[in-house]
Amino acid sequence: MIKAGFSREIITPPRGITLVGYFNPRPNTGIFDDLYVRVMLFEQNGIVSGMAVYDLCFLSAEIVAEFKSALKKRGFDFADNMMFSAIHTHTGPYIAKFFGNEPSAEYLDDLVAKTVSAVAKAFSSLSPAELKLGALDQNPFAFNRRYWMENGNVLTNPGKLNPNIVKPEGEVNPEIGVMTLEQDGRISAIITHISNHTDTIGGNFVSADWPGRMERYVQNELGYDLPVFSLIYCQGNINHFDVNSGDAQGGYEEACRIGFGYGKIVLEVIDSAKEFKPEFIKTSLRKITVPFRNITDAELAGAEAVLAKPVEGGDGGDMTSEGLATGDGPVARFFAEQMLAYKKNCSGKSREFELISLKFGNTLAITSLPGEAFMEIGEAIRKGSPFKHTWPVVLAMGECGYIPPEECFGRGGYETLPVEGCSPRQDTDKLLVRESIANLNS
Fold this sequence. Notes:
With about 450 residues, the protein is an alpha+beta fold.
């Protein structure tokens, strides 16, 4: 018999705390909707495992370690059997130092306390559950965001209706996976697996972006407030911008459009989902070392040359997606400064991460990736997995930055540029595919 329990706690930051996700400081001035930590636990044969999903941009390996430590102090020794992941909203608070911005110590303390509280409530609510699983190849809101251009280079977010676009650099897997838990004759919780960037709103208001709106849509349609857990599939090179359309695609209205659209698809998948009864639910954990890259003398000289040039119009102004795409003005200086900081503080070093896989018999495996992996990495893991269905989950158990395939380096696009604290070595894609498949087979 499988038991399941779940809970959620509000983790909305106080007014004034800076929001993460862009290069300019953005102290929040209000909220569109609350942020949550959602906890799902499973128990079978006395063994407990599960997940905690946060409406945050990312989780550091250090904060994950704090979560585990606090849970163990509370007596929850199954903390090592839990996956901790973020939905990647760009309208949530910092939880680690990034781009020179420090997180609020008080907020972090509260985040740990809310995690323990949510786990305790989920554990106390464990009760028999039936599982159903479904999928649909229908993701009309996801597009590869890196494009080959007429000049032979790749550009990220090249702008709508840009006549110099040749074709996308890569593909999009349109599959949307859904697991439902049924208790007491009704659906009590939903887990989704969707590939898309969670960055549609901008501005200074707190929001869980489209995953929060998706949950609200599903709740409204079903008529009660069940939790919807958003597991984000590989999205390092995926977002919601359709470059073949001239329509504006930003703001809270866009988050609602996409969230409600995904909600409709999720309900459609639920209608055709099939019950599955895994003979076991277990986890496997694997520690990996992820090296930073080495900065060459030529790269360093290029960065110093950029910084030696005056910027037309000064250093002010917002660094927009258009500026990021072209690398003009303050954007070029930003990445040059990051190159120098990376060389000083990161180059040649390494970090430790944990990979965790939650295995539901031989039918489904949910497996973590510690950064923003490109779609090709997730597809390679799925291809090598021994499970019928495999859900790689990005931004889980820590954050090591964008993880492109090695062949993407040198083509262009800001995902391949070194940023302090992120940007793993160029062959990290192969490391993650190899170690993830090994973990799935263990």
